[in-house]
């Protein structure tokens, strides 16, 4: 099959859960012999290349060569996926490039993901409506329902024109059905790799870690716990949500270490004793939760969105008061820290409690990951008449 991804995010580095999942999916499909290509954003404002030299450095560090074919058009091949990164000044130029790519590549399926303005989706359904699959990763990018920053009936109607919709979690599938209403299929993506996953030997060392510190991800809970456990080393891994104010707050915390983000999450998790996922907004799923559990790392997660689903029935799902969207920003309401403090204290001081959670987490995650291979997505693509 010929598979094209349209994504309104950078391809490398893939530090967010959604664009990492998309990249690993294409790589897995390419490894199975499918021809895979992507049209993506060239630059970002945070957690990725902001200039052409930075893009060249990101691509070059991975052994690939960036070819600047025209102003705003940058191409490279990475792990058998052909990537076109665009930086055009007008939406019409983006439309022209997407249409050109579809016409020349002739994909059997077009996966459209993380397209907040539905520009890429509009191009795809205009050129090849019968071949468009919406690959939905983030509930906040939807134009409807209680968690949408902006509502649009026009964009919702456009989403309904896609041939199929893929949801990455049961939580997202239910949200689409109730608030769309749109029908979708849950397909687990091959984001965890084949393993083996190195298990922690014990819980006596390492950081209490938060990935992507920001208000939405529970920064205030993380910082409050660091204050309450001053002798415990905490770590934060800044990605797209960490602005200057976040970095300043982290730097001011005496027992917080800032770790650089990494495409290979194992570089972070091998330093992690306990993972915190105290999100105050509804997470669509929470890949990082399963990543940690695969390695026997206990996770304290909030009850937001799909995080309880990602916890796979293992202990330590903790209620929070959700963040409030006001005047274009998320505000963190006061939280009851006692459940977080009690849970973290138990895992830090009770070796048996740590070992029970570690073992249960690893068993549940290994079973879950065994059902997330690329074969399931291949089978989904082959469904229906008129396609290979």
CATH architecture of the largest domain: 3-Layer(aba) Sandwich
* Approximate strand percentage: 15-25%
**Uncertain runs:** none
Cα gyration radius (Å): 21 Å
Structural class: alpha/beta
Mass-distribution shape: globular
Descriptive keywords:
single chain; about 400 residues; alpha/beta; Rossmann fold; 2 domains; nine-stranded mixed sheet; 14 helices
Structure description:
The protein has 388 residues and is of the alpha/beta class. It folds into two domains: 2-191 and 372-382, Glycogen Phosphorylase B (Rossmann fold), CATH 3.40.50; 207-369, Glycogen Phosphorylase B (Rossmann fold). The chain contains 14 helices and 17 strands. The protein has a nine-stranded mixed beta sheet with strand order 3-4-5-2-1-6-7-8-9, with helices on both faces. Strands 12-11-10-13-14-15 form a six-stranded parallel beta sheet, with helices on both faces. The protein is globular. The model has no long low-confidence stretch (mean pLDDT 93).
